[in-house]
Specification:
Rossmann fold; alpha/beta; 13 helices; 2 domains; globular; five-stranded parallel sheet
């Protein structure tokens, strides 16, 4: 009799364990994120990371994806390609993430994309421009930005509005900046705008005076600089020191930021840049969604968001939307199923209408041309989105207060 009583215990134990095991609906959805959170690109990597965090928080606070919470596993690539590969291998092979997002600059994004292809893990990159990356026939690589989104509006603005006689393009000696300079020059030449000089400089150049003197000797009126945040800070300050005033200075990368305006003060006035999104500058019809993002970001990080934050948010939202759609269709959460769903997305976000071409590029990514006026970013092109008129030519340094 005692033996019979003991025989029933395993069945009761199995029943107890079965009832208390987590259901499939409660198992979190695990996605990975790789960004340069230390090293020379740490500032930008952190901004991408914060945008991704907002997207994940937004989903989880509203009940998750079909009742399942999203678990974000973040890794630091230390601004080094070999570390980026190692982190991607860890997340794909060991942590078994369903998908990847994040990424800043193509020297880091490219290696991650190859690991993603190896494991058939969809990767939606936040900040990637190099054209080669979407020419590798990698079905698991997607991105929310592309180079022509900078080139086309800037080329149109220069051709239709500024119409410079002596234009120079200078650029950092990086793959993305070099491609930008080449593509912009080709576009301008097709529109009968002569480019008098194209010259590259080393990232982190400590002194631009020789280059400025060369531009002055050629009597250049419009300078387009494919440099970055620190390059613009130094170049504009040395323009002022040497009393060289072009009729326009345009920096598509690194100028349209509150931190740049704060750092430069009054010397930032009249500079042109491009911008995909900024608080107060959002795609028509997305004002409410944009403000919700701004409010949530402020609560989480106690500061104003910028366009880099929005790129991180947009890439993560695209990924989460695809995963949610796979769940709604009752399909298994596999890399191929998520990839297929990403290919069919057509969503409206504050930064862009997002759908992907066959190579993983976004179809509709497009910047606006902005000018800094009285410490604010004013949209000056295209006309349909303009919030003010361009001040051109910009006043000489000696004429400013």
């Amino acid at each position: 009799m005692l033996l019979n009583r003991w025989r029933g215990i395993p069945c009761l134990l199995l029943l107890f364990l079965w009832c208390h095991l987590p259901t499939a609906a409660a198992v979190p959805i695990r996605i990975g994120e790789i960004n340069p959170l230390s090293g020379r690109l740490a500032k930008q990597g952190l901004e991408i990371h914060q945008g991704v965090e907002v997207a994940v928080a937004e989903v989880n606070e509203t009940g998750g994806l079909e009742g399942r919470q999203v678990e974000l596993i973040s890794r630091d690539d230390q601004s080094q390609p070999d570390v980026a590969i190692s982190r991607a291998e860890e997340l794909c092979a060991w942590r078994k993430v369903l998908a990847l997002t994040g990424g800043y600059v193509d020297s880091l994004v490219g290696p991650i994309s190859e690991v993603a292809r190896k494991y058939k893990v969809p990767y939606v990159a936040s900040a990637s421009l190099q054209e080669e990356l979407t020419q590798r026939n990698n079905p698991y690589f997607f991105r929310v930005a592309k180079l022509q989104g900078f080139v086309n509006p800037l080329c149109a603005f220069l051709s239709k509005h500024l119409m410079p006689q002596r234009l120079a393009i200078i650029h950092a000696a990086t793959p993305g900046a070099t491609e930008f300079a080449r593509n912009l020059r080709s576009c301008l030449q097709r529109n009968s705008i002569s480019v008098r000089l194209v010259e590259k400089f080393r990232p982190g150049t400590p002194d631009f005076t020789p280059l400025i003197n060369k531009l002055a000797s050629l009597n250049i009126d419009v300078i387009v600089s494919g440099g970055f945040f620190a390059d613009h800070l130094l170049f504009v300050r040395q323009l002022k020191e040497t009393r060289v005033t072009p009729t326009a200075y345009i920096g598509p990368f690194g100028i349209a930021y509150e931190s740049f305006i704060r750092e430069m003060g009054d010397d930032a006035e009249y500079l042109f840049s491009t911008c995909a999104w900024n608080p107060g500058i959002t795609r028509p019809g997305t004002e409410e969604a944009s403000q919700k993002f701004v409010n949530r970001f402020r609560r989480m990080f106690d500061r104003e968001p910028n366009t880099t934050n929005m790129h991180g948010y947009t890439s993560a939202k695209a990924l989460l939307s695809a995963i949610g759609e796979v769940l709604r269709q009752g399909k298994p959460l596999t890399g191929p199923n998520i990839r297929e769903t990403l290919m069919g997305l057509n969503l409206i976000f504050p930064m862009e209408q997002l759908s992907f071409e066959q190579n993983g590029d976004p179809r509709h990514y497009q910047h606006l041309v902005v000018q800094i006026q009285k410490g604010r970013l004013v949209v000056v092109y295209p006309e349909t989105r303009a919030t003010g008129s361009a001040i051109y030519p910009m006043p000489k340094w000696s004429q400013r207060r």
